[in-house]
Task: structure prediction
Amino acid sequence: MRMPQLLTALLLLGMLASAPAAAQEVPIGWEMGLTPAPGSEEVNFTLGDDGEVGLSFWVRNDYETNSITVTIEYDLPFSADVSGPDEVEVGAGDNETFTFTVKGVTVIDFDAGQSDDYEVEGRLAALGSVMAPVPDADTDNEGMLVIPHIVDLDLYLEDPSGASNAGTATELTAVVTNNGNAPDSVRVATVDDTCPLLEVSGEQTLLGVSIAKGGTHTVNLTASASPSHPTKTCRIELSIQSQGDWNVGTLRTADSEEITLKIESEPVGGSGGGGSSSGGGDSNGDDEVISSNFAPLPIWLPLAALAGAALLRRRE
Result:
């Protein structure tokens, strides 16, 4: 019984020795992995504001006599698309890097900082010119994609309903809308105008109020014109800066809005002057009435007085 078993073993060894060189290489002599982010050992990446990020993976071929062909599959979160190779070939003993782009993520639809796993899977499809009978997969290629913080405060400043008189105040409605993907607030509010005798106040009520994603914050500003303000059209500009920008060291104007307000001065000698003119007119009328109360003297009366005086002198 031992002799037949020995003959069988020798026969199998002879068959293996006569097999092609490619068939003798067990298909485990390759490896792939994800390239870490610059300056990091992790393979976690934050998407850009445009919903894209560039990544890469490497494939190392440890076979010394044959090239390898590896098929690539991507498993991405956030309904992302990908632009990258679906098959790569690496020469014998080489180590090559391949890039791909994750794109098409509508980042505003997700909360800032939200993360999810992505995976890049490679399968050995061929060793040299020989197709792999059972493609093996290297599946330990996972990382994380992170949604960025989108800062987008939108400012609306309502136009006044009409002109304002000097010495009066006009209310201006300001509305801040958070179109970003995280709660935010106004850090700085600045008002400028082109009229020295016009004072605009109330912008400080915009500050420090948390505005939820998609929420609004409404305040009323007051534009007060001096009583001596001339007739003029004034330009009013309101600018805001976001707390979200300040938190990451970005000092920029989130939004600004400009309106015009016409100030009309009181007419010179307006209601008071009219009263004075009317009083003067009334006084003139009274003089006329008083004069008309005295009847005119007859023309013969002075002559009679003169004749009487002459007669008295003769008698003396």
Observations:
- The helical segments are 2-17, 21-24, 243-247, 271-291, 300-315.
- The CA atoms of residues 276 and 282 lie 10 Å apart.
- The chain has two domains: 19-146, 153-264.
- The radius of gyration is 48 Å.
